[in-house]
Amino acid sequence: MAFICKKFICSRVILSSLWHRCNIVISNQAIITRKHHCVSENDHANHDIIIAGGGMIGTTLAVALANNRALESKNILLLERNSKHEYQQREQYSNRVVALNQQTRNLLSSIGAWKHIEAVRYAPVRKMQIWDACSDAMITFNEDFLANEIAYIVENDLVLHAVDKQLKEKSSIEVIYDAQVENIILPAARGEDTLIKLQNGKQFKAKLLIGADGFNSRVRQSMKSQYLKWNYDQMGIVATVKLSEPTENVVAWQRFLPTGPVALLPLTDSLSSLVWSMTTEEAKRLLKVPEEEFVDALNDALWKVYPKNGIVESGMAALQQLLEQFSLQTGVSRQLQPSISNIVEGSRAAFPLGFGHSTSYVAKGVALIGDAAHRVHPLAGQGVNLGFGDVVVLVQVLEEAVRSGSILGDTIHLTKYETSRQRYNVPTMLAIDALHRLYKGTAAPVVLARSLGLQLVNALGPVKKILMDHAAESPRVR
Q1: What's the pLDDT at 473?
Q2: CB–CB of 220/363 below 8 Å?
Q3: Could you give the CA distance from residue 251 to residue 416 in angstroms, rounded to a whole number?
Q4: What does the CA dihedral 374, 377, 378, 382 come to, rounded to 10 degrees?
Q5: Is 1 exposed, middle or buried (0-12, 13-18, 19+ CB in 10 A)?
Q6: In which pathway does it act (predicted)?
Q7: What is the distance of C-alpha 56 from the center of its chain?
């Protein structure tokens, strides 16, 4: 007979017997990391917090909660729908990477995970160069390298590995792999528990359920929250590419094409990570073409000279004269982008792009974080950072609730999390969506408007600093 662990006080003989019985394999469909407690499997296992989704965001939240002094005594259940995966460092880089901002690095450092990333590999971004293919407009960030690194390029599986290592040290966290959620029943009244049932029949109760289960979130669906979404009819091609010549590779490059942005993120002196957005039809075609044809198309995207419109050229010249009159920066020290010699074999892949936002992040006994709450275009590299920002603020809010003696799932406190994050997330998401739409246009008035705006922002140092500070803002309850 199988048992789920629950804390008890018994004699040595009984304890030894029950311990033996609790370690019997429960099911071929689930692997359970046990930390505490044993009750009959016919009962509901009670937890303070259940996190549905064990990716980068959900796992980081679990560790951050267990790392917080006010919350470390809470027992936490992490439900991961995938099988347990052991990380193995390989010489070849993964084609899925994230650009972590300074505040995300601070979060990972605070829970002890960043040291594991440092022990393996990451690439700092010390400069960004962004330019328009339809004009000469461009903007650079941290051109003189006076500021700290503006981002850190890390492989997705390495981030998860680093957080997993910290997870294993937390005795208050129980993890279930291959956890397929079948049903969720949210509390009808204040103080009631949330019930979550798995496909293998296991049922669990919690004071607070947190949905970190991606943009097709079952937790969000159980909330019946209105979800605003649209597809961009685009896919993002990712790959690891080799530069034609080794260089001090510390620059993130992004060129806005009429078909979508193409970006190169540094990995090593001779390798970069590619994120190339384009129509779904074209992406599927480029995934199938020979490597040589793909490399030619990529170099064309990075270097092709598009015909310039006379109206746009005249407008840009007039702006330059105006800036000169006010002694503002009129030119940019342009650094030439790299060329690509070939791609790492087997690294080409693609994923669909879309926008999504839940109008509500919280309800009685439940909260959403990460992609379960919001989804954005990757052109600004902010999607994962928004999720890590959710983690920081939610931990702050739950700490405040515990210190005030409130119930974890009380909407009085959870609403503070929702308000704080939506005030930050919504403007950021709308700005990213607006940029995507603005750079799709090829009509002369549209190209002129965006080119003038880009060049003007580049000339105004304080404005650029505001943009950089917002991208790396320290999440807090507001």
Answers
A1: 67
A2: no
A3: 38
A4: -40
A5: exposed
A6: Cofactor biosynthesis; ubiquinone biosynthesis
A7: 8
Displacement of CA 172 from its chain's centroid (Å)? 25
Euclidean distance between CA atoms 419 and 434, whole angstroms: 22
All structural domains of the chain, each given as residue ranges with its CATH number in brackets, are 44-310+315-471 (3.50.50.60)
Extract long-range pairs of 221-224: CB within 8 Å, 24+ residues apart: 222/184, 222/185, 222/186, 222/366, 223/186, 223/358, 223/360, 223/363, 223/366, 223/368
Show the tokens assigned to 254: 């992004």
Length of the chain counted residue by residue: 478
The pTM for the full model equals 0.87
The CB-side HSE value for 198 (13 A sphere, CA atoms) comes to: 23
pLDDT at residue 119, as a whole number: 97
Give the position of tokens 């070939």: 342
- Amino acid at the residue 53: G
Residues of the chain with pLDDT under 50: 1-43
Query: Which letter does DSSP use for residue 380 in this model?
Result: G
Phi, psi at 299, each rounded to 5°: -65, -35
Q: What own/partner pairs with CB < 8 Å and gap ≥ 24 does 413-420 have?
A: 414/362, 414/367, 415/362, 416/477, 417/361, 417/362, 417/367, 417/390, 417/393, 417/477, 418/360, 418/361, 418/362, 418/367, 419/478, 420/393, 420/475, 420/476, 420/477, 420/478
What pairs with residue 266 in β-bridges? 272
Q: Could you tell me the two tokens for 396?
A: 């702050």
Buried b / exposed e along 35-57 (16+ C-beta atoms within 10 A) = bebbeeeeebbbbbbbbbbbbbb
Q: Any idea which residue has 């607070």 for tokens?
A: 208
Handedness of CA 211, 29, 187, 356 (dihedral sign): positive
